[in-house]
Amino acid sequence: MCLYTITQLIDIPGYQVTEILSMRDDEIHVKIKLMADHRGRCSGCGEIHEGGYHSSKEMVAEGMRLGRWRLIMHIIKKRNWCEKVQKIRTEEIEWIKKGVRVTKALAREVNRLTAITTNEEAGWYLGMNDEKVYRIDKALLEELAEQRLKPTLASLNISVDEVAWKKHHRYLTNVVDVDEKVITWNEKGRKAEVLDKYYESLGEENCQKLETVALDGARTYISSTEKYAVNALIVLEVIPKPSEEQ
Question: Between 119-126 and 130-149, two packed helices, what is the crossing angle to 10 degrees?
């Protein structure tokens, strides 16, 4: 199989297949390197370095299938000294989905399959276990959710509340647009610093436009709201005590 043809089929901009390491009944392993006339992007500062080469490391990731073969890529990544962060950083590969070691194209394919079938069935079709399918799909869904929630929707009337999302007192802070009746922002934790992030994402101008903020009475939420939403009326949720039996 021609190395150039494989490179064109798997769509890896700036990189090329340099060797076929092995071919089995259902897998093909290839070595991939940065093209000689290209420079990798630093994962520390995001810029392209011309010098500062330190060493190389191999990362194994999976790409879209080539016919009946699962494509396993052994990617040689350069490690360079970054002057900006004053650390050795590995080059960042734009076509790899972070955290799950698959190409972005394969991550999208997994997401399409899980939209119409179960993780287990999608995994069977792709030759993966359902745990890997779950992690890939979760990573892509989190990215899509982040894109839809940024920039933070500017609201006039909001409600802030905490919800338990795991055992052992782990909480999530939710911000709801009262008029639109949708969650516009959330973050792990329930400290003042957590709600501060919401107001900072709105910006000073939108914070000043807030008219009402409904809270459950938590001191952390009150202090954060008083600091940022200076013109808003704070509405405290009061839970009535059950009346005593006569």
Answer: 110
